[in-house]
Specification:
Length: 191
């Protein structure tokens, strides 16, 4: 069961949100089209539309939203507040005081480490991971793994934007450890 939204209304939301996304060629490096979502966050209606569009596909049994450092905090906390559930930040290493749990993951160049507060999740708690953008999926997969290690029942992943052509969705859906959980995105844009 999901929270639901009429398909026509969802299309309107997508249209309005899409107009607030700015595409910046060659940032942060040549060949990358940066999808700047700050215009969505800065717009009073955009922020509400973003939350409404994500919530439309959130399973109704969700108990906790996990947002990914840093832009995922904006999206995740907004969604959590609208749903009336709690929020747990999945932080880049070195920001949270101990005790924490951590998970290292691969980036295009090198590695990074995520941390969450130990006991951030109760055993079996139903958690949805929310982030601003899905690219290769490495970031979200690491967060999923970390939260499951903490005892979460992972309900799925929700993104504001999904970049196509990078197989990020497949890497989450086919992740044998995640058990085929659903992946939702409001907008799909080419990488
Ligand atoms: O699917 P992936 O290839 O792993 O990439 C997606 C991640 O990249 C960006 O985060 P970034 O690490 O740039 O952090 P920020 O939110 O702090 O800017 C974005 O916010 C996602 O979290
Ligand atoms: N193209 C892109 N635009 C914005 N954020 C990103 N994170 C990874 N790829 C990105």
């Amino acid at each position: 069961m999901e929270h639901g939204e009429h398909p026509t209304r969802l299309e309107e939301l997508r249209e309005r949100i899409g107009q607030l996304v700015r595409s910046v060629p060659d940032f942060p490096q040549p060949g990358i089209v940066f999808r700047d979502l700050s215009g969505v966050f800065a717009d009073a209606d955009g922020l509400q539309d973003m939350a409404s569009a994500i919530i439309a596909e959130v399973p109704s049994e969700v108990e906790l939203i996990a947002g990914l450092d840093a832009r995922g905090f904006i999206v995740g906390a907004t969604v959590a507040a609208r749903l009336g559930v709690g929020f747990v930040p999945v932080r880049k290493a070195g920001k949270l005081p101990p005790p924490t749990r951590s998970q290292t993951y691969d980036l295009e160049y090198g590695t990074a480490t995520f941390e969450v507060r130990d006991n951030a999740v109760k055993a079996g708690q139903r958690v949805l991971i929310v982030d601003d953008l899905l690219a290769t999926g490495g970031t979200a997969r690491a967060a999923g793994s970390l939260l499951r290690q903490c005892g979460a029942q992972l309900l799925g992943y929700s993104f504001l934007v999904e970049l196509t052509g990078l197989a990020g969705r497949e890497s989450l859906v086919d992740d044998p450890d995640a058990g085929g959980v659903p992946v939702h995105s409001v907008l799909t844009l080419p990488a």
